[in-house]
Specification:
The protein has five domains: 196 residues, 2-Layer Sandwich (Beta-Lactamase); 155 residues, Beta-Lactamase; 148 residues, Beta-Lactamase, CATH 3.30.450.40; 167 residues, P-loop containing nucleotide triphosphate hydrolases (Rossmann fold, 3-Layer(aba) Sandwich), CATH 3.40.50.300; 140 residues, Helicase, Ruva Protein, domain 3, CATH 1.10.8. Helix content is 48%, strand content 18%. It contains 35 helices and 29 strands. α28 crosses α30. The structure holds adenosine-5'-triphosphate (ATP). The site of adenosine-5'-triphosphate (ATP) has 21 residues, from α22 and α30. One of its GO terms (molecular function) is sequence-specific DNA binding. Keywords: ATP-binding, DNA-binding, Nucleotide-binding, Transcription, Transcription regulation.
Amino acid sequence: MKFTENSLMKRAEHPEIEVPVLSKAVLEQERKMLLDLGNDITSVRDKNDLLALFSKRIKSLFYFTHTIVTLIDYKDETYTPFLLDDENSPIRAHTLYQQLIKARFSLNEPFIQAVLHTADPISFILEDIMDKPLSPLFLRVNHEEGVQEILMTRLMKEGKPMGFIHIYTDRPGSFTKEFRSVIKGIAPQLSGAVSNILKNEEILNKEKEKSFLLDFSSDIAKVRTKVELAAAVHSSLSKLTDLKAYAIRRINEDGATLSPYIFDPGPIPPDKKEQDRLVNTNFPINDGLQNRVLESNIPLLFNVDREIQRGITSSYLQFWKRMEYKTLAGIRLRNAETNLGILWLAIEEINIQLLQGICSQISIAMANIIANEQVSKKQEEQAFLLDFSHDITQVRTRTELQDAIIRVIDKTMHTKLAMIRVIDEDGFHLSPFMFDRTLFKNAEATFDKMSVNRITIEEPYTSRVLASKEGLVFNVAEEIRDGNAYARLWETTGLKNMYSLPLRAGDKNIGTIWLLANRLSKLMMKGICSQISIAIANIQANEKLLAYKKQLEIENDYLKEQIHTIYNFSEIIGHGVAMQEVYRLVSVVAGTNSTVLVLGETGTGKELIARAIHNTSSRKDKLMVKVNCAALPASLIESELFGHERGAFTGAIDRRIGKFELADHSTLFLDEIGELPLEAQAKLLRVIQEREVERLGGKQTIKVDVRLIAATNRNLEDAVKAGRFREDLFYRLNVFPIQLPSLRERPEDIEPLANFFVARYSRITGRKIKNISPKVLQQLGSYTWPGNVREMEHLIERSVLLTPGDTLQEVYIPRGTTAEKQNPAQLANRSLEEVERSYIIETLQRCAGKISGAGGAAEILQIPGNTLHSKMKKLGIGKADYFLTK
Ligand SMILES: Nc1ncnc2c1ncn2[C@@H]1O[C@H](COP(=O)(O)OP(=O)(O)OP(=O)(O)O)[C@@H](O)[C@H]1O
């Protein structure tokens, strides 16, 4: 496109325009005006005065409507209005006027290019050019307001165009040769004046900046808290023209994200929800924007659209777009060598020095506030730890500890206790000590599978934690990426990090603690863990003490229970050959650790012999422990022998030590071994072989040193053949059998035994019986004694009680059952329970008090021994019923 210089042709079309005649006087006047203008112009400091002066002086000679000066900005290749002749401008009322006076017009279009490349003033008829592609809008707007022609002249500085004078007229032909020559002549002075004004403005701005920074620095020096900082920043930054909004983000402790610290969305805030979301977001540093700002020592200006096009996906960028911020400046906040955060400004232009000044002030204040916050946080933490330590010293049990931990870490620190594992006594395994299963309610099955089992100190994560000085932080997301199977479970809680620390008492590792949280202070963790370690060590000591106490109580109960027995058994009567053989065997085996199997009919003194063996062995200082295998229901016998852990089966509310453990370093006497259920036989065999027991429901094996003595009145070989007794167990028990003779086989002992029992029961009951009548002796000698010594003992006990004088005249040897003599009419009026009760009593009497085993009442009644035991308990049948009633 080609523009012609102002055409005189056009002027010809407007004959009404008067062309001034150049007289000498006029020339003189013109020269004077130029001189005056030149003088005045150079002294003008205020930019508004300049154009007014210029306009007034020129108008005295030539006609035009108004004029403006625009300035070039080579940075973005634009020019923009600088001086305006508001008073005379015909376009002042135009709707686009306000937009035009702020607009930046491109230098890269034909109209202005023509001006740029022409040294002399150059004029255009608006109609010709205004609608050409890329022509600046102001041409059309002026035309709309009646302007016809424009005269453009370059303003030069140091040989380079710095701007333009625009002169407009509504009368074509106004720009005469003389006019142009005057404008050309005045242009350098005008350029000089504009440069002066610019320089002046620059100086003024610098001063303003200085005083701004001074004010800011004195404001900020008083700042102590984040709120005060926000207020100071707000009052200062709001003085910056064009600032729409700003935010300060602070680098988080993780060193990888930034969170909003101070946020001022400006006069048009976003909706509350969006604002809350922004304030609560951690923005990653490495998002392509923030990392660039933090690495740059000068402020960076970002064009929002361009950054989005470049593929930056940060959520705040989208927010800026929604808020219609076009450009954003990011400046790092840095104290000494440490980046603290970023100041983001929604602004279109930046003054680098000013922003750097502002940022260094903010940085100092922020560093001080952070340091203050850290100090008070430390103080708070210390106070908190003090409280915790106070709470924890009161703790005696696991439940109390769990309560204390949850009260403190959950409520105050938003941290969850996932698990405490404690190293077992073997120093190798770790058992769960405490855990919060509810935390894993979304994955309970996995939690149970993975966490409740015992692990060893060699388990990779545990061994790392135990070896670490101050514990480890596992980032859940990272651990999942690295294939840590536990991390999937952690993820279900929604918390970001798993903090695991070794629990130590002194230098000794006692376990591990696993805490889930999004954030946790190291100092707190350390403090809490040392308190918890102490509490656990105390609880363990307490639990041990309680266990010892319980064991002592059990032993004590035993002792009490057995005192009577021991008293009874303090003497063994029997001088015959058969008993002499028994004594010999006892003395041979007592000093060894061999298992002994005592055989013999009921009441022959098997338990007495077992005690004799124990009492003459090296284990005599500890109590012999007795288990009657027939007296317990099959379901409880295993727990009785081997013990159980809490919850091992329904009803197992407490941990219980088994008789094997109780008999450690002593003797375990298994009476009526023939009655042991097959399942328990298998377990017993294993214990005899391994010499270690495992509690029911427990995973730990416990070494035991127990000497076994078993007794039975059954023929075990027959039981083996019948499949009721394990052959392998029989051989294990039958290492050293001692067969006791029945009383029938040793009649020589009847009289000494009778004397012995008369003396004992006379003493106990306070009778003065000294002798036994020959008749009684004869009766005793002729009886067959199916219940052996026990039967005789009870018989004599009863007879002693019924004897008034000093000689035992009568014994009540059973001669058949009394039930047979019962009057049927009497029976008819009794309840089933009463009949059952008396029938059991009679049967017991017949069996001389023997409850189970061969020849026992249970066998006669054809019910299991333990059923009879419980029936007797239910019906209230005691020894007194079957030994004293007649
Ligand atoms: N040689 C003996 N001298 C003194 N008392 C004896 C003798 N033998 C047995 N007794 C007495 O007989 C009672 C039964 O003895 P013990 O309980 O040892 O017999 P047992 O063979 O174990 O019986 P069971 O087979 O019914 O268990 C005991 O109260 C004991 O006082």
